[in-house]
Every structure is written in C-alpha cells, then in structure tokens.
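Most newcomers find our protein records easier to grasp once they have seen one. To make this concrete, we reproduce a full record directly below:

===
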Amino acid sequence: GGLFGGSKSPVEINLYGADLEELDRLSNEIIEKIKGVEGLKDIEKSLKKTKPELHIVVDRQKASRMGLSVYQIAATVETAMLGKVVSRYHETGDEYDIRLRFQKDYRQNIEDITNIKIQSPLGFALPLSQVASFTKAYGPITITRKDQDRVVTITGTDFGRNLGDIVKDVENAISSITLKDGYFYDIGGGYEDMQSSFTELSKALIVAIILIYMVMAAQFESFSQPFIVMFTLPLAYIGVIIGLGVTGKTLSVPAFMGLIILMGIVVNNGIVMIDYINQLRQKGMKKTKAIITGAGVRLRPILITSITTIAGMLPMAFSTAEGSEMRTPMAVAVSSGLLFGMLLTLFVVPAVYSVVDTISKKARSRINKIVIGEEE
C-alpha cells in the first residue's frame, strides 16, 4: 500500500507551532507563495475557522481587586452554561449523571452570559460583565497535533508535471518565509512516501544483484563468468531510460519495481549464450569459433523468449484504462529494457566474454608462476 500510494495528498506541507493565530497567518502566506508553482493544483489548508465563538477575556486587575481568580470565573461560567456533574442517580443497576447548571431560560443568549453572577470570597456577587470583556470570533473546527505539536497541513495535488520538480519549486518558494522561534515546517504526503519507497527499493535492488551473482557463481563454478552475464543489466537499463523518455514517463515507484523485475529476466539471455559457449569449448572448439558459433546458434532462442515477453507486456504498456498510470511505467520499463538488452546482448556479451576470458587466463598464468616460484 505504501509503494503504490495511499490516502495522503501528493504534496503536504506540515507547519508546526504553538499559536493558532500565527499558524493561520503563516499558512496563508505559504499558500500565496506556492500558488504560482506550475503543476500544483487544489491547494487547501487543514485549519478552517468557521465555528462561531464568544471569547471571554478576563480583566485580571479588576478580578484581583474583587478577590477573584481567572480559574474561579472560568469555573463559574462553565458550571452555568455547560454544567457540572455533582452526583449520580442509581436505578436498577444503571447510573445517570446529575448535572447542575442554569435553567434553559437563563442560558439562551449573550446577555445571559454577561449577567452570570460571580460569587466573590469577599462576601458579595457581581455580574461577569464587570470583570470581563466579550468578543465574537470564529475558531477552528479541529485542532490537529503531530508529535505533540500543533500542526496546520497545506495540501495540493500534482497535475501535468513531475512530483519531484513540483516539490523542489515549492521548497524554493517558501524558503524566503521568516519563521519565529518554535515554528518550523516539513514536506510530506505522497512525496515523502515516494522517497521512502525509493530507499526501500534501492536496498531490494542491491540484494537482488548480490543474489543473482551468488546463484550464477555457484552454477558456473566461476567468479568471472557471472560478471559477463551481469553486464547485460546496464545494457537493459539503457533501454529503460530510452523507453521512459520516449513514452513521457518518469522513474516512479512502479518503474523502479520494473527495474528489479527486469534483472531476473534479462540475465537469462546472457546465461543461455555463455552456457552454450562453454559447452562448445569443453568439446574442444577454440574460443573465437565457439563464441561466434554460440552466438549464432542461440540467436533464435534468445529472440523468441525475449519477443514473447515483450509482446505480453505491450497491452499493459499502452493501456489507457482506469488505474493504468500505476501499471504502465512498470510495463514500459520491463519491455523497453528487455528489447535493448536483447539487441545489445547479441553483440556486446560475446565481446565481453572474449576480453574477460583473456584477462582471466593471464591472471591464472601469473598466479601459477608465482606459486611455482615459491615451491622452487
């Protein structure tokens, strides 16, 4: 699920800080900065102030002269309007809260709130309006936290442009914004998932190369010949780059997975050719003639196996159905890489085989001379 995307937006800017007003101001500034980024659409922010509120601001000096604390005033207002559970009623095993608060007729409007009587420890009561002021405002519907910090998320979608290039332009656009101490941002969303997926797939690619080499070294009983076969990998990757470029695709996560799949397919051509050349040499045929004969005899099997695989990938590569944007890059990577790998294998691998074999013979003769010299 992480490799093929989830519910996150392609671009997410997470803005962290303590004060909601400052976060709201900074988020609006960021939105203005990134509006001009090409390919970034549907920009929204998570902090939406649409909930009507009444802000009660206590005059601390007046309240202190009356012997009142902010806590006492807040508790009285909360009890009057919201209520306070003072006991529980038990009946046939069930419990019901008994909530103490003003009757409905005395908590209908703002005037009822301003007239709430606050009992002072000095022995008298006074209305709330004498020690507090009132302001109508709009507050956030939700307050989101991430890693114990308040966060405002600015989201956007990509359209007609590479996601990596969009994120680079976004970073350049908001780099000029001055943030106060305690305020910072990071970029996440689908881009963050993509970077994480590339890291994991890179590890898988390295492991795949090691495993392929180990298997071939065991089968060929040689350390040098697996390198000849694995020389087909960079040849195939040339085809992948050309194929993605011609079709207008980018090196996305599905395309990267296609690279890993391609590794197990494209080496088959080299294995078939090298193994047959070795068989001919074991029968007494000279190296050059064995290479020419082996490449010629194995030409048709290599063409048949490669073309059938490529033909099987073509419907997926040129698909325009729903969801094809996830499958097409993988099919293009496999088919184009296999096509170029097949063509170049027929010419490059025999030449590489000849060169590596000559180098291996010289290395073995030097080692033998050194060993013989030490024995003498």
Remarks:
- The two ends are 66 Å apart (CA to CA).
